[in-house]
Write a structure and sequence with these properties.
2 copies of one chain form a homodimer. By secondary structure, chain A is of the alpha/beta class. Chain A has 14 helices and 12 strands. In chain A, strands 2-8-7-6-5-3-4 form a 7-stranded mixed β-sheet, with helices on both faces. In chain A, strands 1-11-12-10-9 form a 5-stranded mixed β-sheet. In chain A, helix 5 packs parallel to helix 12, helix 6 crosses helix 11 and helix 12 crosses helix 14. The longest helix of chain A is centred in the C-terminal third of the chain and has 37 residues. The N and C termini of chain A lie far apart (about 70 Å).
Chain lengths: ~475, ~475
């Protein structure tokens, strides 16, 4: 190792705090302006090649200072986002963010807590929120949970807890040792469920995909049959994953029935409630979640229908010990003290895989305290109303028809010739007019509008639909002339 | 489902943007003041019971608005953090954060991108940073990688990529099917490596813990022996995990030798460089990483020695296809378009488990562009110089002696009677004077100072050490009188 010069330590704080303060306030002003004026700009603008070229640079040896970096930000970054803040973004289950979220993340970065463990307010606030969420879902006092990036992680943790519950203590030391475990989810379940089984070493074939009814909900009778058949052929069923809000249609599996089957069969019930679980905040939607209080674990996202900034998921277990038994580990540098900064009983790293964790609890706490569940629920209700409005427009139109049930806030529809759907969606994106997405139903591309944005009003749906109709007519004219 | 009232949609934007603007600017001012004045306050203050009691509340149905929530933040949250911003925090491998990080997170929350995929600047910037990092580590153009929460996740992804490489295509469908895989790491490796093997279904027993030399580095001769012995008894060695910066001492495994062994034996070499990998930014420290360019994958954190706000890890693979083969999956709602928002070749969700991902690339890009690698490296060098200074103080003191080698920026030391170390560390925490941590060496508690803070100057080390000596004398006097 070369000799390190023993010089005056080099710190990274501003040399001139007043100058930094001016830059930061200007950045804040522009961020607020950007959000306030979101309706005036296109939903989405493709990143031009010259911007990409400007980003191609080795990591610099010499810094250029915050002021120059902020100029680059305004030129190269800010205009080319996802579009999910815009009221005509209808593409995917993305939250729209809030102004409160900007303040929350600024404060979290200021504090720069590591919420993996130890005795400080970040850990404490997360424990309190876990208790509050447990109460929302009707879980007992033994419940516990932690923030994660998103529901893909939450579902994975649910799978690991179920695996540990099925195989007991030796699993963590000895591994799977060929136990033929099988899991069950609806054919409409999110792909991350199969991926969770892959990561856990069980393989995606361990997931039985159960056929749905006409509304996109798992068929409990077929689920019972599948479990029976697997037992007969020597498999060990261990897990049912219920979906609260399917990605394509927004369907809710009948959780109460799933809970009964899980109880009868001695299986773990995990609920993938990526966007749907927090519908518990809406009086109108809450009945869809009936039975969730009987689940063993629930995964969900705050960055979807609760509009907390990305990323922010949660895994909640009805028995916190199930997570502790899956994750807690002794390590010298994690040794607990009776007093001081290294004290505290449950650390987040006892309940999940991460030891380095940002302060997600702050943005959730600030969102829940600022708005309350009533406002968040009302925004969800409004999205469902807008979806019903859109479905009615589709039904009235001679250019489109519904391609799937639209029970909630997601509307899938199609032109008479499905091959035109792709061109229509791409054209809307490129025009910056609206951002629906494309999904496949029975192998055919259909237009999918997922209404998750609290800024989306009925008038926006009307604007989008008029655009879509006009474009569809153009495409037909073009094809006829072509 | 109850009927949802078809009322005017309820949005969550401020009713009064000017009022919001005032609140946000005040919050920014207070956040900057809080950071600027960090030296004037105790390192750590225990959260009082009355604060915890105030946090005990069900999730509210009615919001109280941002202004009231900010008042709560200042009273209940801000004073009770981890302490890692303070120059006398020496407890764990925590970054100290920067003022630039505050602006970056505020801007990221404003944009609210989901960086799981699609065609937008968040995905683009991440790809460019991956390429820049690949160049830093001497990886070929085929390299690729993604941001994750932290190195626990990065190491897990490394294990999954290694597992996929060892078992080939059938793994993802069929699962482990009892393949007796074994992995190798030093006895000083971080606990998350064993946990990664647990999560992957291999069990922690699959990890062979190899004895270290006197400097805390893995012994390559014993590693070769262990691999040979395992092959002889029918196991399938698949993975070596080298550590670049051990958690207790800051030791670097001889990566070049590990790469040669991995090449000879056909094993995957993953480097856990949680804090040590980014020492590549320091001319003085870079030689410690010699051989890292031959690794198959590297995991590391930007929130540690690069001071990017929590959380922010990275997994870099020398062959991006190894990650694609481990994670990419077809799903209808992930279907790629030729044009528009849903286009783009590689999405982050092809390279890792998360589909919902915040814009970590922004805070890393802003940090690297603002400071450059030279300043970040200089701050690391300064920490190493401060550690040498501390070790010299310990060696001169009649109260303490070094408990372990201190080759880098971590100094472990002990009083003559180790049972006093715990009391000493707790007393320093409770006084708010300094925050070293306690770790176990050969089962005995020792005082551990991990110097990761860019604000820590030699003078801070002197202040800390004088406090520690005074307290040690008090404890001795107390014990003698007791």
């Amino acid at each position: 190792m070369n000799e390190i010069p023993h010089e005056k330590p080099y710190h990274l704080d501003p040399e001139d705090w007043a100058a930094f303060r001016r830059l930061a306030h200007r950045a804040l002003d522009l961020a607020i302006e950007d959000l306030e004026s979101i309706r005036e700009r296109p939903v989405w603008v493709e990143t031009p090649d010259w911007v990409k070229d400007r980003l191609v640079s080795p990591i610099p040896r010499q810094g250029k200072g915050l002021e120059a970096v902020l100029e680059d930000f305004y030129q190269l970054i800010q205009p080319y986002g996802v579009g999910n803040r815009h009221p005509c973004f209808m593409g995917w289950a993305h939250g729209a963010g809030t102004a409160v979220g900007i303040v929350a993340e600024m404060l979290a970065a200021g504090l720069n807590l590591n919420c993996g463990g130890r005795n400080h307010i970040g850990v404490e606030l997360e424990r309190r929120l876990a208790a509050g969420l447990a109460a929302q879902f009707g879980f007992p006092a033994s419940a516990d949970g932690i923030f994660v990036t998103g529901t893909s992680q939450a579902n994975f943790i649910g799978v690991l807890a179920a695996r540990r519950a099925a195989l007991g203590e030796p699993l963590r030391e000895r591994g799977l040792s060929g136990a033929p475990l099988t899991a069950y989810a609806s054919a409409e379940a999110h792909g991350c469920v199969a991926q969770a089984l892959e990561m856990a070493g069980l393989g995606r074939n361990a997931l039985r995909s159960i056929v749905c009814d006409s509304q996109g909900r798992i068929r409990p009778d077929l689920l019972r049959e599948a479990i029976r058949a697997d037992r007969k052929s020597g498999m060990t069923p261990f897990l049912i994953v219920g979906t609260a809000g399917t990605v394509n249609f927004g369907a809710f599996d009948p959780l109460d029935e799933l809970a009964s089957i899980a109880a009868d069969e001695g299986l773990w019930l995990h609920v993938d409630g990526a966007f749907g679980a927090l519908a518990i905040f809406s009086d109108a939607l809450r009945p869809l979640l009936s039975g969730v209080e009987r689940a063993d674990s629930i995964g969900f996202d705050f960055h979807k229908w609760a509009h907390v900034p990305y990323d922010c998921g949660f895994i909640l277990a009805r028995d916190g010990d199930s997570l502790r038994e899956t994750f807690s580990a002794p390590a010298a540098y994690l040794s607990r003290a009776k007093k001081g900064l290294a004290s505290g009983e449950t650390w987040a790293c006892d309940l999940g895989p991460d030891l380095s964790r940002g302060f997600r609890a702050l943005k959730v706490w600030m969102t829940l305290q600022s708005y309350g569940t009533e406002s968040l629920g009302a925004a969800m209700d409004a999205n469902c109303a807008a979806a019903r409005h859109l479905a009615a427009l589709v039904n009235k139109s001679d250019l489109f028809r519904l391609a799937a049930p639209a029970p909630l806030n997601i509307v899938c529809f199609t032109t008479e010739r499905p091959e035109g759907n792709r061109a229509l969606v791409e054209a809307l994106h490129l025009e910056g007019a609206a951002a629906p997405s494309l999904t496949l139903i029975d192998g055919n591309p259909v237009i999918r509008c997922a209404l998750f944005n609290h800024r989306t009003e009925i008038a926006d749906v009307d604007i989008f639909f008029a655009k879509a109709e006009a474009l569809a007519r153009q495409l037909i004219a073009y094809e006829c002339s072509g």
